[in-house]
UniProtKB/TrEMBL annotation:
PROSITE patterns: BZIP (PS50217), BZIP_BASIC (PS00036), DOG1 (PS51806)
Taxonomic source organism: Tagetes erecta
Record protein name field: Uncharacterized protein
SMART domains: BRLZ
Pfam families named among the record's database cross-references: bZIP_1, DOG1
Disordered: annotated span: 29-51
Length: 336
């Protein structure tokens, strides 16, 4: 552009004028060329880059907004899951409370209500103690596992074994107290999880079933296998005897209730029936004695490290039953 303009000037003007104006014109041309060539071009580039920068900023803002939205959604889903688990726990507690109320409900008169409150107090104490027992049992099982996998000598390991065995003895003691408070509650197994109740026998597990679970977990010598097999046979005989006693007690209890003397006003003589329930308390305590004795006899037939492994296997088995019950409950609460 500026080249054509310069050529026209040289054609129309004289040489003298050209000489006089040369320096001035060159300066003007230089300034004009600078403004024309660089000024508009740079301005156009800036104008053209503005929409691009704005688009990039918008994309970056959209990406950031999408990222924050995903994080909020993830946090919301996690909060829903926590709330769902809390709801399941509350529902379980509610069902347990309903079952206790049903078991504890007595007659209409004040004395019966007083007995029911006393029984509730004893059962509430048992439930707290049992929950603490389960928690402590898991800790003792983990301690045994850690000790067995370490270089701990047999003397120290045996102390942990005896401590765990005493822990089971404590369970049988608090169960005996609960049985005296309300034997029907204890024997019903309401205090256990649903899967544990599948294996319930007179307020607890069958000793022979326990041995059948433990023996395959241990590497036994032939003599040990023989001794434990004999122990299983002895357990089954004791179980049969107690089961027969339970059946006979149920029959006599039913007869005592049916034959109770009519006292008028819808009340009946229940002394004989109450006496039968007292016999049921003794039966539960005898069943726990067999359970405890079986556990002791089993450990006597094992080496120190075998005994530790046996108690670990027992603790893990019982906890797996409880975990199975929780998993089953959660599955039932899932939407179809």
């Amino acid at each position: 552009m500026w080249g054509d303009f310069k050529g026209n000037i040289y054609q129309d003007a004289g040489a003298t004028m050209i000489m006089e104006m040369d320096t001035k014109l060159d300066n003007q041309l230089s300034e004009g060329t600078s403004h024309t060539t660089h000024g508009p071009s740079s301005k156009c580039d800036q104008e053209a880059s503005k929409p691009v920068d704005k688009h990039l900023r918008r994309l970056a803002q959209n990406r950031e907004a999408a990222r924050k939205s995903r994080l909020r959604k993830k946090a919301y889903v996690q909060q829903l899951e926590v709330s769902r688990l809390k709801l399941i726990h509350l529902e379980q507690e509610l069902e347990q409370t309903k079952a206790q109320c049903a078991l504890m409900s007595g007659g209409a008169n004040a004395s019966q209500h007083g007995l029911a409150r006393a029984a509730n107090s004893g059962i509430a104490t048992f439930e707290i103690a049992y929950e603490q027992w389960v928690e402590l049992q898991n800790k003792k099982t983990n301690n045994l596992k850690t000790a067995l996998n370490s270089d701990l000598d047999d003397i120290e390991l045996d102390k942990l074994i005896q401590d765990t065995l005493n822990h089971y003895a404590n369970l049988f003691n608090i169960k005996a107290t609960a049985a005296r408070a309300d034997v029907c509650y204890l024997i019903s197994g309401v205090w256990k999880t649903s899967t544990e109740r599948l294996f319930l026998w007179i307020g607890g597990f069958r000793p022979s079933d326990l041995l059948k679970v433990l023996v395959p977990q241990l590497k036994l010598l032939d003599q040990q296998s023989h001794d434990l097999y004999n122990l299983i046979q002895a357990c089954q005989q004791a179980e049969d005897s107690l089961s027969q006693g339970m059946e006979k007690l149920q029959q006599t209890l039913a007869e005592a209730v049916a034959c109770g003397q009519d006292l008028g006003g819808g009340h009946y003589e229940m002394r004989n029936a109450i006496d039968k329930l007292e016999e049921l308390v003794r039966l539960v305590i005898q069943a726990d004695y067999v359970r405890h004795e079986t556990l002791q006899q089993t450990l006597r037939n094992l080496t120190t490290r075998q005994a530790a492994q046996g108690l670990i296997s027992l603790g893990e088995y019982l906890q797996r039953l409880r975990d199975l019950s929780s998993a089953w409950t959660m599955r039932l609460c899932e939407p179809a």
